[in-house]
Design goal:
The chain is α/β, with parallel strands linked by helices. It has a single domain, classed as UDP-N-acetylmuramoyl-L-alanine:D-glutamate ligase, CATH 3.40.1190. The chain is built from 14 helices and 14 strands. About 45% of the residues are buried.
Length: about 375
């Protein structure tokens, strides 16, 4: 294990406060209903079956079907329902940590009962209809099939029509952090970032950090990615901006901004940092994560888990931990450790970690390798 990971873990243990204290946080602008699924590999009787364990197995069967020129049929089972998307996953985590979340997103008109039941005690603002995602879980990844809701058409003007810029400014006043996701599902999100920059001076006590999750940017063409990149750098003129993406998303962004090439993870992250000019760019992966700042690039290894309980939304949970660390003032690599800790607890248990459990994971980080 490289010394950089050990130093980052030790720093996280030192810098993560015992009492973070309740504060307000704001998340926008999506909303999903997730149906968690698993695929049946072989069924022996009406009550007994074997689950298809790997996404690679799914691909192999699909490849054989294509080569044979035949159709392919799978049985899948629903293994639970939950609210999803950037706003819901991060608000759920911060609510567990006794923060006061504001959710501005797509929850139905009127608000659907599923969202009301879970988030009705929070400040919940609906802008339209949610998307619906079938999240198929495998041990080595997930397949997500999504019906996009009203996020696809949302832009700065539409946000004014449905909610009001003045009301948004009011919600941001005094908040510790604003989280924004996902660019992939809201192609005009750069107009929202530009609008926020133009109104930032109107906020008496604005958030010190804006966390931007691009999402699965493979859905966006390179021209759109290039045309929207300036909005992030311009927002950095008025506040700290942290962009967080997984390994695949980082590669797509690097290809769009620096030309297609075979790059190491750190090199791809550096290319994205140079193009977007955020305060931090964080790339999170299965075996290691990287963070790029003006001071350089740091790598933090991730403790592996052989049999995860759930992988869907692991990236959102990483972002929740990263955001918690930003609010708490941690150094970049130490903040990545906290992101890995929150995600690591979640994929092992399929449950939200308490603050005590986050600290325990951080304190025992090196022992988990």
């Amino acid at each position: 294990m490289e010394g950089g990971t050990r130093r980052a873990a030790d720093t996280a243990s030192e810098q993560l406060p015992d009492d973070i204290g309740p504060r307000r946080v704001v998340f926008g602008f999506d909303g999903y209903l997730d149906r968690v699924r698993e695929v049946v590999a072989d069924r022996t009787d009406p009550t007994s079956y074997e689950r298809l364990p790997r996404l690679a197995d799914f691909r192999d069967r699909l490849d054989r079907s294509v080569e044979a020129g035949s159709s392919l049929s799978y049985e899948w089972l629903e293994d639970g329902r939950r609210t999803g998307g950037h706003t819901c996953h991060l608000a759920r985590a911060f609510g567990t940590w006794d923060f006061s979340p504001t959710l501005v997103g797509m929850y139905g008109d009127p608000v659907r009962e599923t969202f009301e039941r879970e988030f009705g005690d929070y400040d919940l603002v609906t802008l339209g209809e949610p998307g619906v995602t079938d999240a198929v879980e495998f041990d080595d990844g997930k397949l997500m099939l999504t019906e996009i809701g009203d996020t696809m058409a949302l832009d700065w003007d539409g946000l004014d029509d449905r909610f009001g810029h003045d009301r948004l400014v009011d919600r941001l006043d005094g908040a510790a952090l604003l989280g924004v996701g996902y660019w992939s599902e809201t192609p005009r999100i750069p107009t929202v970032l530009t609008g926020l920059r133009d109104r930032w001076a109107d906020i008496d006590a604005p958030p010190e950090t804006v966390l931007v999750d691009p999402g699965d940017v493979r859905k966006l063409d390179a021209d759109r990615l290039r045309s929207g990149r300036a909005a992030i750098g311009e927002l950095t003129d008025v506040t700290d901006v942290v962009v967080s993406a997984n390994r695949a998303e980082t590669d797509v962004l690097a290809d769009a901004y620096a030309g297609e090439a075979d790059r190491e993870f750190a090199a791809a992250a550096e290319a994205v940092f140079d193009a977007l000019e955020p305060t931090w760019f964080v790339g999170h992966g299965i075996d290691h994560s990287v963070v790029v700042t003006a001071d350089g690039t740091e790598r933090v290894s991730v403790p592996a888990v052989d049999e995860p309980e759930m992988t869907t939304s692991s990236g959102d949970h990483f972002n929740a931990g990263l955001a918690l660390a930003r609010i708490s003032g941690l150094d970049p690599a130490a903040a990545v450790v906290v992101g890995n800790a929150v995600a690591g607890h979640f994929v092992r248990t399929a449950d939200q970690p308490s603050l005590d459990e986050v600290r325990s994971f951080v304190d025992d980080y090196m022992a988990k390798f």
